[in-house]
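Hi team,

Filling in the usual template for the complex we talked about on Friday. All components are listed, including any nucleic acid strands or ligand strings, so the model treats them as one assembly.

SUBMITTER: L.P.
PURPOSE: interface mapping
COMPONENTS: two
RESIDUES: 430
SEQUENCES:
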Amino acid sequence: MVLLAIAIFIIGPLLVGLSMGLDRRITARLQNRRGPPLLQPFYDIAKLFSKRPLVLGDLQGMFAVFCLAFQAAAFGLFALGGDLVVAFFISSMGAVFLVLGAYSTPSPYSHLGANRELLALLAYEPVLFLVIIAVGVNGSFLAGEVSRDLLGRIPLALLALVPVLVILLEKSPYDIPAAHQELATGPYVEYSGPYLAVLELGRWYQLAFVYGIATLFVWGDSAITDVAFKLILPFALLFAAIVIDNITARLTRRRMVSFMLTAGVGLIAVNLVVSYLTGVI
Amino acid sequence: MGLLDRIGVRSPWILHFDTGSCNGCDLEVWALLTPRYDVERFGGVNRANPKQADILLITGPVTKKCEDRLRNLYEQVPEPKLVMACGNCASTGAPFHNCYNVCQGVDKVIPVDVYVPGCAARPEALIDGLIKALSMWEEKARAAREVKG
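RESULT (copied from the run log):
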């Protein structure tokens, strides 16, 4: 059991890295380009680790390391079959360390990015939290003991994960914090070399956690179909996010928050109310 | 570290800076990112951020006003780094020879690794220059570590 957890802990972020490469490749194909090799995100990380470290003060580097540590801890707890709510709060703390790191430098771009990252947190965290609540009330909050019929019981919660992923993957219409065209990657702008790589790894762990929640919705009868379903679903969600990215333009940050707090929260609320009225929960 | 350097070649993040070019070479540099030339095949992306850049694509004859800015940008790029002078102006200052307001070439201000001639430099030539510059990456990385040690 522990060995399985360790395997998930290591393979999870590697699969996320691979999905990032696939993402860049599919995006390139959608734009009629050839695109980078599939392993490009790993090349980028390796290159960043070989660059000379450069930080603006001790705090900046420390916050980056904390960001990775907390995101890894959250995913580790998930892999061990631990409490989803606790894992969610640890993961949120990691996201807050990214914001603190951005605030610890005197750059206005970094500060603007940090402000927007906070808004993004305000937009996606309530929805993600409600997804976890919905999972919990339908069985157990422990990742290892959740109900096997989540897709039948709370299908709208899975749908609500799509806009959450759009924000986390920094894709249009909600690529508000990074905003490549105007903020030059926002909260990441003052990071470089190994510290940028550490933050990127933190992001992989965060995404692995969110994809991990999505995998709780599908179960196969045998081990092989189980693993296959659990692999296919995150890639389907990623593909949905890529298509949304390529057919929309960026909306304002106000629209992001209001959409997530009405439509996102609303979807899960409707699902839970219907479940309650029909006596499922 | 040797392995990291060998992989690093596959991920050249680009910073493009216009030091007073007529925009001819700038358009050709931007063409590298379009579907026709797609420099992302080699892992190259435009980061528009000196702190995250590996290779500087400099266009223009470097006006006196731009001199300090160019030096500033170069110093913000962490080692190892590569510099490419794109076009005749950036290589030698060509049409602005002996002009009072330009430095006449990027190499008068910062060290240059690869010169790509042309007015404007063709995107194919720029890709050639990029690959040529990347062939020096491992050597640069080793040198950077020795200086540090």
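MY TAKE: The first strand of chain B starts at residue 13 and ends at 18. The helical segments of chain B are 2-8, 24-31, 64-76, 88-92, 123-134, 137-148.

Thanks, L.
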